Amino acid sequence: MKQKTTLLAIACCLFALSATYAQQKRSKKQIEKLKTEVAALVDDNKKLAQVMVDKIFSFSELGFQEVESSKYLTGILAENGFEIENSISGIPTAWFAKWSNGEGPTIALGSDVDCIPKASQYPGVAYHKPIVEGAPGHGEGHNSGIPLNITSALAVKKIMERENIGGTLLVWPGIAEELVAAKAWYVRDGRFDDIDMCIFTHVGNNLGVSYGPTRGTGLISVEYSFDGEAAHSAGSPWRGKSALDAAELMNIAWNYKREHLHPLKRSHSIFTDAGDQPNVVPSKAAVWFYFRDIKYEGIMEMYAMANDMAKGAALMTGTTMTSKVLGTAWPRHYNKVIAETMYSNIKEVGLPEWSEADQQLAKAVQKEVNSEKIEGLPLELAELGLPVLEPISGGSDDIGDISWKVPTVTLRYPSNIPGLQGHHWSNAITMATPIAHKGVVAGAKVEAMTIIDFLLKTNLLEGAWDYFNNEQQKETKYRPMISESDMPPIYLNKDKQDQFRSELEKYYYDETKYDTYLEQLGIEYPTLKD
User: Fold this and answer.
1) What DSSP character marks residue 206?
2) Please, are residues 112 and 93 in contact by the beta-carbon 8 Å criterion?
3) Closest by CA position to 357, among listed 125, 73, 12, 102
4) In the chain, is it the N or the C terminus that has fewer CB atoms within a 10 Å radius of its CB?
5) Regarding beta strands 197-204 and 106-112, do their DSSP bridges make them parallel or antiparallel, or are they unpaired?
6) What digits encode the pLDDT tens for the residues 446-498?
7) C-alpha closest to that of 406 among 107, 168, 182, 197
8) Long-range Cβ contact pairs of 472-475 (< 8 A, separation 24 or more)
9) pTM of the complete model
């Protein structure tokens, strides 16, 4: 038995060495041939990509409620040999899907899946037309990213199996990105401790990638809750302690503070609990803030100021206060070596060939929402994005936390229309149309070719880590904004999703009966205003 075990160990070592040897001995010409082949395999899977994009669009699921989306996507991955781990970091809709072909780099492929409240929209229709009035919809195009990653991963997997290339592919979803409430928990819980690099994908209107500090901010998302004492608002209001007064006083104090914030800082708030009815002094109230800045230190400075204001509001009203971190996102920093390698593949793939119908739709939507330019879809590639030298405020994405854990880039792919305002029904119009389908296939080719580069050119991964360790972290070190006791707020959006799920189910895409979701909905593409 011991001899058999020894022989088995030797065989395993020889297999690993042969895989490593195979990777080291590939010529540049051989690698380029494999990259051409993997792009062709992506093309072979374009029907699957279209179905996945349309299917996730039809589910229209908000953050933490991506039940159907997660079940569907993990089902496809499991059918193709990926090992699925569910409920990552205590989030029921979070999962990691892993496939390994032996010793080699572990490459993580991530993207978001959630949608936007009240963004329901018929695809291919160049004006506001909700599928279900008031329902969620894919007004940021998150229905397309994981389908892109799966399409590229399946193509790469075939090449790895045939050519005996060692390595591991890990596909994962950014759950509840619109709440920035998952990726920091993944990092905290060690889910990226053994990852060699990460390619993240996000919908855009061109093929592009950047490196270094990027435009936008990091943030901390905090809810402040106040507890008071109820009383009859007319009969004995003096006996009440209004939690709503406390929440409003805090909000007023913060609004006065805005005048004295640096222009690169941004913050926004909503009331999540404002009492029950006017004739009862509110015993409970809550206000939810996002505090954004271009640097970690600035975010935490704003957070500390807000905490003091919340305490002061409680003192003024005789109430008590508690706070809860609901999400965080670090400012993003992308890897130079991965970005430069990816951009060479972007130039090789190029933009999709847009049809006259694609351009008609794009220009009509731009006109509908008063875009500055009515130029349709791009015809020229974006340049490689260089480090932002003068910081520019803007949005956040919790991929920032992962970008400070492992070498990371975000691939932007052309599935939407330039000049739209974002987080809006207009951004959903293309997301189950040929524009999205073509953009996803182009992005999947770029991603698959880049994966092949990093599997077969060992110097690239070494260079990526050298940049990460010696350039990116020269002055900044990652410190999590969440503690070990902070839990992801998985209860968020449940009531909103439950309100519309049964009505949305009537519109789920049935790919066994219809070629596309446009066909199922009976939409002539494009549908323009008279």
Assistant:
1) S
2) no
3) 125
4) C
5) parallel
6) 999 999 999 999 999 999 999 999 999 998 999 999 999 999 999 999 999 99
7) 197
8) 472/333, 472/335, 472/404, 473/404
9) 0.94
Q: 231: which 2 tokens?
A: 């009383």
Residue partners of 448: CB distance under 8 A and separation at least 6: 35, 38, 39, 41, 42, 152, 153, 155, 156
Q: Establish whether the linkage from the previous residue to 147 is cis, with ω within 30° of 0.
A: no
pLDDT digits (tens, 9 = 90+) for 117-155: 999 999 999 999 999 999 999 999 999 999 999 999 999
Helix (H, G, I), strand (E, B) or coil at 248: helix
DSSP secondary structure string for all residues of 358-384: HHHHHHHHHHHTT-S----S-SSPPPP
pLDDT digits (tens, 9 = 90+) for 494-515: 999 999 999 999 999 999 999 9
**What amino acid occupies position 352?**
P
Quote the radius of gyration of the chain (alpha carbons, Å): 25
Rounded CA separation 182/177 (Å): 7
d(CA 263, CA 255): 14
DSSP 293: E
In terms of DSSP bridges, do strands 212-213 and 106-112 run parallel, antiparallel, or are they unpaired? unpaired
Q: What are the structure tokens assigned to 144, written together?
A: 């397309």
Helices 336-349, 28-44: crossing angle, 10 deg rounding: 60
Instruction: Write out residues in the chain with pLDDT < 50, as ranges.
Output: 1-22, 24
Question: CA 192 to CA 25: how far, in whole Å?
Answer: 29
Print the SS3 string covering 36-67: HHHHHHHHHCHHHHHHHHHHHHHHCCCCCCCH
